[in-house]
Amino acid sequence: MAVILTEEEAKALLQKVLSFSKADECEVNLLGEIRGNLRYARNEVSTSGAMTNKDISVQSSFGKKVGVASIDEFDDASLEKVVRRSEELARLAPENPEHVGVMEPQQYIKSNGYFESTASITPDKRAEAVAKSLELSSKQGLAAAGFLEDRKGFTAMMNSKGLFAYYKNTNVNFSLTVRTDDGTGSGYVAKGYNDFNKLDTAAATKIAVQKSLASKGAKALEPGKYTVILEPTAASVLLESIFFGMDARSADEGRSFFSKPGGKTKLGEKIVDERVTFYSDPTHPDLPAAAWSGDGQPQAKTLWIDKGVVKNLSYSRFWAQKKGVKPVPNPNNMIMEGGTATLDEMIKSTKRGILVTKLWYIRPVDPQTLLLTGLTRDGTFYIEDGKIKYPIKNFRFNESPIIMLNNLETLGIPERVVSTESDLNYILPPMKIREFTFSSLSDAV
Amino acid sequence: MKRRDFIQLSSMGLGAMMGASIPVLGNVVPVEQLLEPAVDAAIKKKMADVALNVAKSKGATYTDVRIGRYLQQYLFTRETRVQNIVNAESYGVGIRVIANGTWGFAATSDVSNEGIAKCTETAVAIAKANSKIQTEPVVLAPQKGVGEVTWKTPIKKNAFEVPVQEKIDLLMKVNGEAMKNGAGFVTSNLFFVNEQKYFASSDGSYIDQDIHRIWPTFTVTAVDKQAGKFKSRDAISSPMGMGYEYLDGLASEKIAGPNGLVGYRNSYDMVEDAIMSAKQAKEKMTAKSVMPGKYDLVLDPNHLGLTIHESVGHPTELDRVLGYEANYAGTSFATLDKWKTKSFNYGSKQVNIVADKTQPYTLGTVGYDDEGVPCKEWDLIKDGILVNYQAIRDQVNILGENASHGCCYADNWNSVQFQRMPNVSLRPGKEKLNVQEMIKGVEKGIYIIGRGSYSIDQQRYNFQFGGQLFYEIKNGEIVGMLDDVAYQSNTQEFWNSCVQICDKDDYRTFGSFFDGKGQPSQVSAVSHGSSTTRFNGVNIINTGRKIG
Fold first, then answer.
1. Are residues A409 and A303 in the same domain?
2. For residue B154, is the peptide bond before it cis, meaning its omega torsion is within 30 degrees of 0?
3. What is the rounded distance in angstroms from the CA atom of residue B451 to the CA atom of residue B448?
4. Residue ranges of the Metalloprotease TldD/E central domain (chain B) (predicted)?
5. What's the pLDDT score for residue A155?
6. What is the 3-state secondary structure (H, E, C) of B14-79?
7. Among partner residues B2, B223, B519, which is closest to A53 by beta-carbon distance?
8. What is the dihedral of CA A418, A3, B131, B516, to 10 degrees?
9. DSSP letters along B346-413, please?
10. Which of B270, B300, B325 is a domain's end point?
């Protein structure tokens, strides 16, 4: 059987699995994927590989007793075996008071994240794309270390109430670090697409090469509060702590940034500058995502922060039931609205500031304020009178994205970025922030 | 091949300190399946020989085969309820070859002779394809075949054989005691791993190993809803290369610290620690916010382990030094030119840091690494001087050595093995000294316990570390708890400010169960031993902020 099933094939297979079920309720999740990668360093291929994966996961329940089992073989005997296993586990399991039953059939909006260009990548195409990059870096005597990874896959689910969902997609991520021979300059680029045809490894490489050369001979500035322009790659790793933290339950329990003194949550409160709007939308043409979440809930355009106000927190089906509200599934993507300024214009309008192109090793310091620490990396530059003056040594920062989004000066034109912490893709604008806190210097290049 | 499933810890209530998720490799299976015996070594030898023969016939000049059965059991609970129990099994074979001087790797879960043969052919084909863009052929340090050998973690109680109910009862007791003692919330977890690994190579090695690891942990949170304030305290257990006996809580393995604090050596009392945690989380709610400035730090082994990991363990990985990790984890300040001077002062004279994969009860300890090299101990920093790195067969020649250090690892049969950190530990002080005596000598200082927030730059110069518990020391006495503490330093400056190390009676290991490296990312588990250590004049910052 093929690894990537069509919607009809997936439906037939799921129906067959469910036909073996003797439980009160049954839910089956199915996935198939093929991944390939090419890794290189010191201008040489280091490791590369391919991975094929298929998996069927069955959740059976008797009342509030639930069992899950999975298997990677799809013959009839294996399918029946995995259903029986999940039932045995359910019978043995203690009651789960938080178990809510499977969902009724749902309607899902259409979203397209599957591109034949990516699905048909071969090892040769991967090598060609990397060769274009290597040619540029080695020509200039620079050391390149990069990673190209592509994936095609599908997920599907069906339950005993007849709910059926299917989504097929492709992705390609390319990242590259270019270092000067003497180790005093370093530049980075990362690009993520669903459509491999959009990936131009040569153009991306030029960005990393430029940053690597321009970051040579960095000067030290005193740590302190500076106006910064965060390129979207740098902004992504700070904003993720907001994206990942918007859970209603922990806010209700009083142990989240979104909790408020007196036992309430910040839902409906203005927490950041009114130009800040985040939303998720599975149909976004530049960042398509599945229109359903893992338990079958439909995903549609959802505002999370609207003009600075917390519009939604995510509610699991259990927590929503307990609180008497509508469930809100965790988002499958995240988009931040921006402005009209280009990065150049943002630099031009800056009297004195710092251009931050990438941030690294982000860790939460205080969950109460979302205070984060981390460092700049691979190209940090001093701006004076609207021009990049010179490269500067890397800084450690201690800053909360909430404080940062209250100190907002300008938002630029949003673009798709890859988080260097989570590898997830977002659409985010570059942003100019005043009084961003750098706490110490680093000699790292 | 099996995918890597990830359990989102945020939804399990486990703190952000762990990162976003933990990997589960394999099929979810009933617990009984974890008790099925390992595949017989004779059968695995036959399977391995298929790959070795096919590879040779296709032109490979070197081949290694790893047949692995990886078992995991993870339990997640919060307050009065079990959130999830994952029993997972992953079985398959990974084949690595050198052909035309280039590495090739392929892996399959089809362990039939045909499946293995086909997979071997793929590995050779990949090597040959990649050799076209390779300019320097791989040079392997020689390794004599060791014949047919076995090695097993010396466990007393196989954690997989302990009934699940007993584990649930323990976690419910932990949660109950924490709640009784003032916790608003508690999540607790048990992680058990068993790697049944068979390694064979064209050098003539057939190595059968049975490796066990355990990690009990929890997070206790105290909440003041009216004030809108919360504070957490994580367990001060350590992940270990042990069986379920680690949870016996033996009195003989406890070390009495100041202020009623308890340190755990090779046996952990989870309930006792949960009770202390709840009390301490509550105490943190009213702890004094630290005044920034220079302090002498007294660092407990359960805290210092992570500082060693980040500031010594990673920078002395030779592949990082050479640039192989430049696009992700970064490179290293500990460059070869510094090492070549034989006089690079990594730290003060007191600082002796050793790498090993042999220390009992630790996560890194095995008989042989994933290249079939027998494991050993070697110095990284001697009397403060950088003397060596961590290197594997295809890189150790760069150091002028002709034997691998034996620290190659892959986290699954379907991942390619590469250089991973062995245990990296600070040797204890030679003179008799306990932590109480050490604190007596400190005029203005902070005593730090437990793993907190941590961040370090990509070349491992500048770092910032938090902790779980901070105690202010004034004129040789602990005067109370502090909050909002983090220290910032530079690796070389920090290790040169090391002035005193407690003796071997205070020595304990810290561990990292899911250390990440590589692209695609792989995990590994590693221990770091030390005794309580004093560092003078370290910069402390205040991490408290006001919003709104």
1. yes
2. no
3. 9
4. 160-251
5. 95
6. CCHHHCCEEEEECEECCHHHHHCCCCCHHHHHHHHHHHHHHHHHCCCCEEEEEEEEEEEEEEEEEC
7. B2
8. 40
9. SS-TT--EEEES--TT-SS--SB-TTSPBP-EEEEEETTEE---B--TTTGGGGT-SS--S-EE-SST
10. B270
The residues with which A411 forms a beta bridge, in sequence order, are A431
- Of B185, B212, B189, B207, the closest CA to residue B197 belongs to B207
Confirm whether B283 is domain-assigned: no
Contact check, Cβ <8 Å, B544/A366:
yes
What is the rounded CA–CA span in Å between residue B426 and residue B383? 11
CA distance B167 to B162: 8
**Residue A164: which of A54, A5, A316 has the closest Cα?**
A5
Among residues B212, B92, B96, which one has the least CA distance to residue B151?
Answer: B212
Q: What pLDDT does residue A31 have?
A: 92
Whether B186 and B295 map to the same domain: the answer is: no
Both B78 and B195 in one domain: the answer is yes
Q: Using CA atoms, how far apart are residues B393 and B402, in angstroms rounded to an integer?
A: 8
Q: How many CB pairs under 8 A join A and B?
A: 225
Same domain, A205 and A114: yes
Task: Tell whether the torsion through CA atoms of B110, B115, B116 and B120 is positive or negative.
Answer: negative
Retrieve residue A80's tokens: 């029946």
**Position A1 in a domain:** no
pLDDT cut 70: percent of chain A above it: 100
Kindly provide the residue ranges of all beta strands, DSSP E only, lying in A199-350, ordered along the sequence: 224-230, 278-280, 302-306, 309-310, 335-336
> What per-residue string of b and e applies to B276-299 under the rule 16 or more CB within 10 Å gives b?
bbbbbbbbbbebeebeeeebbbbb
Based on the fold, state whether residues B187 and B334 are members of the same structural domain: no
Token digits for A368? 């109460």
Count: domains in chain B: 2
Which token pair is A240?
A: 């993720």
Please give the residue range of the domain that contains residue B41.
4-250+259-270
CB < 8 Å & 24+ apart, contacts of B42-48 = B44/B198, B44/B200, B44/B208, B45/B148, B45/B198, B45/B200, B45/B206, B47/B93, B47/B111, B47/B113, B47/B116, B48/B198, B48/B200, B48/B206
Compute the distance between CA of residue B273 and CA of residue B275 in angstroms, rounded to an integer.
5
**B222/B296 same-domain check:** no
For residue A247, give both structure tokens: 């859970």
Lowest mean pLDDT among A62-76, B152-166, B255-269: A62-76
Question: Quick check: ipTM above 0.90?
Answer: yes
Q: Which is it for strands A224-230 and A352-356: parallel, antiparallel or unpaired?
A: parallel
* C-beta atoms of B228 and A262 within 8 A: yes
pTM as predicted: 0.95
Between chains, do A52 and B459 touch, taking CB under 8 Å as contact?
A: no
Pairing status of strand B205-224 against strand B147-152: parallel
pLDDT tops 80 at residue A180:
yes
Same domain, B266 and B303: no
Give which of A215, A272, A363, A438 to mutate to test B binding, by max B Cβ within 10 Å.
A363
Mutation pick from B12, B27, B109, B490 vs chain A, by most beta carbons of A within 10 Å, is B27
**Domains in chain A: how many in total?**
2
Q: For residue A153, which of A233, A35, A41 has the smallest C-alpha distance?
A: A35
Evaluate if residue B134 carries a pLDDT over 90. no
Summarised one tens digit per residue, pLDDT across range A269-295 is 999 999 999 999 999 999 999 999 988
Last residue of a domain, one of A191, A212, A233: A212
Flag if A377 and B458 touch (Cβ within 8 Å).
Answer: yes
Can you tell me the distance from the alpha carbon of B128 to that of B104, in angstroms, rounded to the nearest whole number? 8
Contacts of B309 (CB under 8 A, 6+ apart): B421, B424, B510, B512, B515, B526, B528
Tokens of B213: 């690891």
- The overall longest dimension of chain A from CA atoms, in Å, is 73
pLDDT in tens, A396-416: 999 999 999 999 999 999 999
